[in-house]
Amino acid sequence: MATTTAKEATAFTKLKLLTWKNFLQQWRHRGQTSAEVGLPVLTMSLILILRWQISPQYRDTFLYPPMPASTLEHSTGLLANMRLTNLTFAYSPRSPVLEDVVRSSLVNLISDNAQELLPMLVETIPGLVDLLPPGSWNQTLAEDMLLSSIRVQAYDDSGQLTGLYVEEETTRVVLAAVQFDDSLYDCECGHDWMAGRAVRCGVVTMSQLFYGCATQLPRDISYSLRFPERPRTFQFLQQGGRSWRSDLLFPVFDTPGPRAANSPQGGNDPGYVNEMFIALQHSISMELISRLADVDLSGYQVNIQRFPYPSYLEDYAVEALQYLFPSFLMMSFCYTAVNIAKAVTLEKEMQLKESMKIMGLPTWLHWTAWFFKQFLFLMIVTVLIVLLLKIPWFTTEDGISGYSVFTNTPWSVLIFFIGLYAACTIFFCFMMSGFFSKASTASLFTGLLWFVTYMPSFLLTLDVNYSPAVQALTCLAINSGMSYGFGLLLAAESSGGMQWGHFMDAPSTDVQFVFGHVVIMLAVNCVIYMLIALYLEQVLPGAYGVAHPWYFPVQRSFWFPDKSRSSNVIVPESNASEVVKENDPTQNPVGVQISKLTKVFGKNLAVNELSLNVYEGQITVLLGHNGAGKSTTISMLTGNIEPTYGTTVILGGYNLSTQLKAARTQLGLCPQHNVIFDDLTVEEHIEFFSRLKGYSGPQLEAEIDLLIEKLELQDKRKYQAGGLSGGQKRRLAVGVALSGGTRVVLLDEPTSGMDPSSRRALWELLQREKKDRSIILTTHFMDEADVLGDRVAIMAHGRLQCVGSPYFLKRHYGVGYTLVVVKGESFDERECTELIRKYITNVHVKEDRGSEVTYNLPSEYSHCFVNLLTDLEAKIHNIGFKNYGLTATTLEDVFMSGDKAGRRVTGFRLLWQQVVAVWLKLFLVWTRSPWLVAMQILVPLLMMILTLSVLNVITTLNDSIFRRELTLNEGFSRTETLLSYEGVVGELAARAARAYAAPFAEADPDSTALQWVHSQTPGDYYLEKGQDVSVIATMRHTNLIGASFNDSAAVAWFSNFGYHDVAISVAGVHAALLRALVPDASLVVYNHPLEATYEDQSRSGIRIVAMTASSADIEDVDVQRTSARVESRAIANTKYRRSPYTSIVVIRLLKLPIRKAQ
Q1: How far apart are CA 1040 and CA 179, in angstroms?
Q2: What is the pLDDT of residues 15-52, one digit of tens each?
Q3: How far is Cα 751 from Cα 1045, in angstroms, rounded to an integer?
Q4: Secondary structure of residue 887 in the 3-state scheme
Q5: How far apart are CA 994 and CA 996, in angstroms?
Q6: Residue 385 burial class via C-beta count within 10 angstroms: exposed 0-12, middle 13-18, buried 19 and up
Q7: Which SS3 state, helix, strand or coil, does residue 798 take?
Q8: Is 200 helix (H, G, I), strand (E, B) or coil?
């Protein structure tokens, strides 16, 4: 078939061709395609079922009753789990004044809650009432018994409080610690500090001197209430939050309606009322106020009351979906992600990617086509998902209609975000494909890491306040970023949905990492994943590519390659003058001109100044043992690797050093393995590669028809390549190399795996197709080289030994003829040799092996062969031989003459050589990869250290250790506090109201403002203002607290949308009462939880780490044994056989010192 010239295909044409190929392969896998579409739709349908089961409903206005600030009514469940007969309160620093304050506070607290505590005391001491004299049991006696059972423990300073809750049992005994300023330590406890003998106090501070060394309370006083960092509701009852959330102001995700709607006291997260924090805060603060003002306030009531909440549409599904929806979406895309990574890696595994690259397909087009196809496909899935999420499927029994999963968020925002996630998924799969050379391995690890990348999202739900930088790093894991993004989208549903232009709006003042940041991080992920994929493509190209060093991005030669191929590498002088070479055929034009082609790998000279001409219309056969340099030469001819120096020019004009792209359009390759697409038909293969060469229209149709006919695959024209036999696949692979009018064809063992008849048919095809082509063929079949080779080139040790026609080489290396005599039982070798010497005087025995004797007969004595053989047959019985044969010199004799093999060893020497070889292999692997030995020794230790460090970080990062000032001064912004009073001007209510308002007058009104409420309570004002739907979402973070005063009582109002609203509100009322009575005094309260890490958790963590480290060592042993078995199987079919246990035994011996080191 004569070749024709076609115009090179444009990049856009190649992109369309690759996209066509990718979509065609996708279509051929109809089951997989249906699953990739159906699984996301089915998964999202489960979300619809959840949405249907949890329907929204209208809730009436929530009105909450007031309750005393000192109440313990809601804490009986906790008290029942505590040691009431041994209950302890701690305080610091040690001081009679402070101890008197604490004891008096406890007396007031118990007196206010005697009705709730008495039944619990009776249950704690069985038979208590029966033991007392009749009529002696009364409330006063019970209170005295409670007070006598409560101990007050003093500590010298705040440092001694640190280890208070180390033991879990302590949390059941010590209710809380009250920490005052260390300057209040009593220095006069039996010591003459003026005489300089302050042994227990240390240095005396000025504040101690001023206040008489803590003999009286200062006017500016502050204290911290220190409860266990884990609230007892969580610890005892496994309910509520697992910390005090002292580093946060608001929940990360808002939900519609009031938080803990059915709890007048504000619920259990963090549960200030239920944990008895408010009761103790109120008792201590009121005691301090009474002492500083010298006023009895026992008759002045302080209540707490939640702001009412207007009627609203309650939707618990939004809260549930914040945790469930991301996991469902992650699982719905998992199957698709695995298939993408598998498909991309499969092309690398089957050498399809490298072959297309050699035939003129740029790498960037390969990635672009894959992304284009996958993105279009995933966008179809995205649109279907958004349809399910946005269509208002549901109507409630109450007549509420028009609601969906995402009722308020626009369609476009959902399509944009899921589409961005889909794009990030594709790039993630590209990155994963770069790590592996096997499609099955890539799919396995992609599936595993797909779930692993979702795990960091759980960190965002823990009670830890991570910085925006940590949250951004967490979003580098694709599914964690998606999870956090959808959490913010669902949170925005309660306030009108996520709208364009509001991506950078924070849902609360605590949240600094917003939806816009998630979008940015997913876009950054796309770039990072693709850069890693491109990097791995160069460093880990697979079994058929050439790897660059890991530091190649910083090499100048990578960005600015030297087109001249000059090199300073010192190369030994070649044996060009010693090459046995036949005169070049002058009648044929040169198709491939190789000039001094050299390749050096490190210190290894793979090809040494190879100079060879390949002529058009001829087949040049390249022969050589393994390691002779054939594969390296082929790789340089295809442009797969760059030569150290030397040039190659094809078709008289394309220099591979400077015109590689143009040269590849004329290059066809048939590798040793079948490089075909199993899902494309025979016709589609020829069409694809012909189009890649620039063919189109009638020229393309003629090429397809003619080539299929030449390949004798007419009846398989519409068959998919995966269903062809081995011989038919090989013929198709050769056809791919010949398609598109390729003028330079490289065939690497094209007939391997074919039966004799198929080989003969392929020989005939190549003989016909060599016209106008330059064909380079490698083979291990000498008869194939003899039949097909117009010229044969033999290489050894990277050098060209000889080149010429088979006849020329046989004549040059030929030893004449070979006479083989088969011995009989009475064979006389001396008589046989003497008979032959009568005709050929200088004959000698070439080989005497077993039952055969071989003689070399020089060709110049060929005229004597007739008489010799006649005489030999006549004396068959005298000599005692059975038969004989006479053959001419073969090409295999020439090949062996060009590169002689060494002598084989057998027996014990062979076994010892195998043992030495295995030891040498392992030694070289370990010395060249020192990280392997280091990993085996250090990995268990590093895993122990790393895991324990993670446990320690998780413990130390717990937000409850943060010290929270119970005011609006820390972290809040744009708040509006409500205030009202009723009473006689000049009385306590009026003074307290003015004292409450005074700090706001001095503050920045844009940061914190005060709203006086006249003729109504703050609760009524809040409810009236909240009727406006447009402002209710804003009120969650602005109207947090309030206060109302009258002459007999005060009410601390709180909204409960913030975690600390109730404690801040109570502290504000107390501070106002103090300033109303003592204008120059101040009172500040802190919530500073105490660390509570228990020893049992550390022990369990160590056990987990120990098991993990042990598994690493077991895995290493299994890998070594598996490697040995695979290696044994790999050589099982060769002539150099050894026992499969040789490697295992040697490896075990070598492992002994490593195990000792571990």
Answers
A1: 27
A2: 999 999 999 999 998 999 999 999 998 988 888 887 77
A3: 100
A4: strand
A5: 5
A6: buried
A7: coil
A8: coil
- Rounded to an integer, the average pLDDT of 550-563 is 76
Task: Tell me the two tokens of residue 918.
Answer: 């295995």
Contact 227/277 with Cβ under 8 angstroms? yes
Range 855-861 average pLDDT = 84
pLDDT computed for residue 432 by the predictor: 95
DSSP letter string over 664-684?
Answer: HTTEEEE-SS----TTSBHHH
Q: What's the mean pLDDT in 353-365? A: 84
Tokens of 35: 């699953």
Considering the entire predicted model, what is its pTM? 0.71
Query: In terms of Cα–Cα distance, which of 689, 599, 591 is closest to 639?
Result: 599
Q: Domains of the chain, with CATH numbers?
A: 67-116+146-301 (no CATH), 320-539 (no CATH), 815-888 (3.30.70.1650), 908-956+1094-1157 (no CATH)
Interval 706-711 mean pLDDT: 92
Query: Exposure pattern of 977-989 as b/e (b: 16+ CB <10 Å)?
Result: bbbbbebeeeebb
Place of tokens 């064809």: 745
Question: Residue 302, SS3?
Answer: strand
pLDDT at 285 over 90: yes
Which residue has 């190549």 as its token pair? 766
- Fill in the amino acid letter for 104: S
Model confidence over 590-649: pLDDT tens digits?
Answer: 999 999 999 998 788 999 999 999 999 999 999 988 888 888 898 888 887 888 889 999
373-381 mean pLDDT: 94
CA dihedral 566, 568, 573, 579 (to 10 degrees): -20
What contacts 24+ positions apart, CB below 8 Å, involve 531-535? 532/431, 532/434, 533/367, 533/427, 533/430, 533/431, 533/433, 533/434, 534/367, 535/434
Q: Are 468 and 371 in contact (CB under 8 A)?
A: no
The phi, psi pair for 325, rounded to 5°, reads -60, -45
Computed from CA positions of residues 915, 916, 920, 923, in that sequence, does the dihedral angle turn out positive or negative?
positive
Instruction: Please report which confidence band the pLDDT of residue 652 belongs to, taking 50, 70 and 90 as the band edges.
Output: confident
With contact defined as beta carbons under 8 Å apart, do 167 and 175 qualify?
Answer: no
In the chain, the percentage of residues whose pLDDT exceeds 90 is 32
> Does pLDDT of 374 surpass 60?
yes
Eight-state DSSP code of residue 852:
E
pLDDT in tens, 63-90: 999 999 999 888 888 888 888 778 889 9
Enclosing H/E stretch for 909: helix 907-928
782 in Cβ contact with 890 (< 8 Å): yes
CB count, 10 Å around CB of 827?
16
Calpha distance 36→334 (Å, rounded): 9
Distance CA 104, CA 88 (A): 14
Residue pair 967/1084 in contact (Cβ under 8 Å)? The answer is: yes
CB 261 within 8 A of CB 62: yes
pLDDT of res. 970: 81
Predicted pLDDT of residue 126:
54
Handedness of CA 260, 263, 266, 271 (dihedral sign): negative
Q: Which of 209, 97, 90 is nearest to 198 (CA)?
A: 209
DSSP 571-625: -PPP-GGG-EEPPPPTTS-EEEEEEEEEEEETTEEEEEEEEEEEETTEEEEEE--
Q: What angle do CA 167, 169, 170 make, to 5 degrees?
A: 70
pLDDT of 401 above 50: yes
CB 365 within 8 A of CB 518: no
- Lookup: tokens for 1046: 């009258």
